[in-house]
Amino acid sequence: MREEEHMRATWQTGLLIGLLSGCGGTPMGDGSGSGDLASASGGAATSSGGASSGGDGSGLGGEGPAGGAAAGSGGAGQGTGGAGTGGAGTGGASSGSSRAGCKRGVAYGHHSFADLEALSPGVSFWYNWAFVPDDALRDGSYLGLDVEYVPMIWGAGSDREAAMQDIPDDAQALLGFNEPNFGSQADLSAADAAALWPELEEIADSRGLDLVSPAVNFCGGDCQETDPLEYLDDFLAACEGCRVDALGIHIYVGCNPDGENHAQWLINHVETYKDRFTQPLWLTEFACDDADSEEQQLAFLEDAVEYLEAEPRIARYAWFAGRADNVPHVDLLGADGALTALGQRYVELEQPAECQR
User: Fold this and answer.
1) Could you tell me the pLDDT band of residue 97, with boundaries at 50, 70 and 90?
2) Which of 67, 83, 243, 321 has minimal Cβ neighbours within 10 Å of its Cβ?
């Protein structure tokens, strides 16, 4: 399918799913579809975004979209495409994993110890849309696998006082709101997200954590903003002087672009973010959203990982997901503790020697 045809089809699908989807989800996610397009460097148009897949962390440490939140004071300003504040977004002050500088991770909230053990030879971190680890890993057993847990403040209803106390001591970074431009996810205007941001800064400062921006995606249907780049522009402008060490982004695209690289539409999206902003990028959800088979998803994964490992602006990336029922052929895990063919390939794909176990 030609790229412009894919954009049109995905946008229409995103609008339909966005209109039908409800708010909230599970740690595996059930968000709305998404769409729209952005232009990459050199004038080439990218494909549209795909399905939104992040969950709300419900059932994990009392997170979720319900509940109120007091707005904090606004901050001081970053312009679009201007210099970001803070550090590289790849590790905080605490000790934690020895692979803190490694990129490869997974977005999933239902790991058993055996699941994480199976992924650990090639996966350096995971997050679960909450600020405490998955139930089976909350005893700290993951520390022996040298896999870093990255907490998140999912939205306005997240218990930030509890997060201040309950975020594990080994954490090194904190993720901001999950897809706040989606009505079905964190559902915050850029101004409201900026007003709350000082509370996340307080948590990050007190715990010595790097701080990653709200994670955005193309949105169709019930949206605060359809275009994630516009949302980030508005957030950074409203949060003048705020600490944002890296930008969080989600990318779902088709895996059959013209040409030989199955991840070309993802690459175009990343290049667009690179051109518009200066901060390091955390790609905290990505997958092909229209794969007809595991073989198609595998071809996309291989080309995407090759690019992401080599691209210096990508500080970290996390595949969606360990197991999922809302994006086809993405599972890294099969039975408990068993890797799928896709999972085995994700673990074994080339990365720096210090990142492999």
Assistant:
1) low
2) 83
Cβ neighbour number for residue 295 with a 10 Å cutoff: 12
Helix (H/G/I), strand (E/B), else coil: 152: strand
Report the C-alpha gap between 220 and 9 in whole angstroms. Answer: 12
Q: Which pLDDT tens digit goes with each residue over 233-253? A: 999 999 999 999 999 999 999
- Does residue 214 register a pLDDT over 80? yes
Q: Which residue has the tokens 């991840």?
A: 263
For residue 321, whether the previous peptide bond is cis, meaning omega lies within 30 degrees of 0, is: yes
| Domain covering 3-64+76-355, topology | TIM Barrel (3.20.20)
Question: What are the C-alpha distances in Å from 352 to residues 104, 123, 306?
Answer: 11, 12, 12
Smallest CA-to-CA distance from 112 within 292, 338, 289 is with: 338
Q: What is the pLDDT of residues 185-210, one digit of tens each?
A: 999 999 999 999 999 999 999 999 99
Phi, psi (deg, nearest 5) at residue 232: -65, -40
* One-letter amino acid of 309: E
Q: Are 357 and 120 in contact (CB under 8 A)?
A: yes
State residue 99's pLDDT score: 83
Residue 48 CB partners (closer than 8 Å, separation 6+) = 6, 7, 10, 11, 14, 34, 35, 36, 37, 218, 253
As a whole number, mean pLDDT of residues 310-319 equals 98
**The tokens 């989606």 sit on which residue?**
182
